[in-house]
Amino acid sequence: MIQSIAEVLKEELFIEQILLREENGMMQMRVYLKYGPKRHPIIRGLRRVSTPGRRMWVRHCEIPSVLNGLGVAILSTSQGVLSSRVARERRIGGELLCYVW
Fold first, then answer.
1. Cα–Cα distances in Å, from 100 out to 4, 20, 63, 66?
2. pTM recorded for the entire structure
3. Residues 20-62: tens digit of each pLDDT
4. Strand runs (DSSP E) across the chain, as ranges?
5. What is the CATH architecture of 2-100?
6. Alpha carbon distance 82, 29 (integer Å)
7. Residue 74 CA to chain centroid, in angstroms?
8. How is the chain split into domains, by residue range?
């Protein structure tokens, strides 16, 4: 799940690079964040929506817009973890995991 979320953030240009390696029999993931021209981080905020005690499910027509399109919502769907833009295009709903802006 974590690797899928990182790949979605890379597709949406919030992350520069993801490295996976095995060390001492355990997989480790190193994520390199993307920075702007004056070394300001591209990711300004992240908000978790679904929690183990309260799951938030949405239909494709109910997927929220994050900061009027400047951010992205991440959903867990039947076709895997997708960004809100891709889920709307494919007309798929699912569990709303988090917002990133």
1. 15, 22, 14, 8
2. 0.86
3. 999 899 999 999 999 999 999 999 999 999 999 999 999 999 9
4. 15-23, 26-33, 46-48, 57-58, 72-77, 80-83, 94-100
5. 2-Layer Sandwich (3.30)
6. 20
7. 4
8. 2-100
